[in-house]
Amino acid sequence: MLKTLLCIAAGSGLGGVARYLVGRWVQSLSGAALFPWGTFAVNVAGCFIIGLIYGAIDRGTNIPQDVKIFLTVGFCGGFTTFSTFIHENYMLFDSSEFPALALYAGASFTVGLLLAYAGHWIARSI
C-alpha cells in the first residue's frame, strides 16, 4: 500500500508541475486574456494521455500496476482530473449506459457550476 501511495504522490507532483508549465506556456502563446486556452489545452491533453494509457491496457499491453497507478491516478490526476472524468464518461458511453452517462455528465457540470458559484458567493460574503 505504501508503494502505491508513493507512486501516486510522485505522479501527482509531476502532473501538477506539468499542468502549471503547459498551461502557462499555452496561455502565453494564445495572446487571449479572457479565454482560458492554457487550461483547455491541459484538459484535452490529459484526456488524450489517459485514453492512450487505457487504450494500451485494453489492447493487452502489459503495464505493471505501479506504473499504471503512477500514470493514471498520479500523473493524469495531478495534470487534470478532467481526464478521469472524461474517461469515466467514455466507459459509460462504451457500455451503452446512456441514462447513467447523461446523469453523471449533466449532474457533474450542473452541481459543479452551482457549487463553484456558492463558493465564490460565500467567500465574497465573509
Explain the overall architecture.
The protein has 126 residues and is mainly alpha-helical. The protein has a domain at 2-81. It is built from five helices and no strands. It has helices spanning 2-30, 37-59, 65-79, 82-94, 98-125. The radius of gyration is 17 Å and the shape is globular. The model has no long low-confidence stretch (mean pLDDT 91).
Give the SSE order as H and E letters: HHHHH
The shape, in one word, is globular
Unreliably modeled segments:
none
Helix content: over 70%
Q: What is the straight-line distance between the termini?
A: 41 Å
Average the pLDDT over all residues and give the rounded result.
Answer: 91
Number of strands: 0
Could you state the oligomeric state of the chains shown? single chain
DSSP summary: helix tally: 5
Q: For the CA atoms, what is the radius of gyration? A: 17 Å
Structural class: mainly alpha
Main beta-sheet annotation = none
> Strand portion, in percent?
under 5%
Catalytic activity: fluoride(in) = fluoride(out)
Membrane topology: Multi-pass membrane protein
Pfam family, one: CRCB
Keywords: Cell inner membrane, Cell membrane, Ion channel, Ion transport, Membrane, Metal-binding, Sodium, Transmembrane, Transmembrane helix, Transport
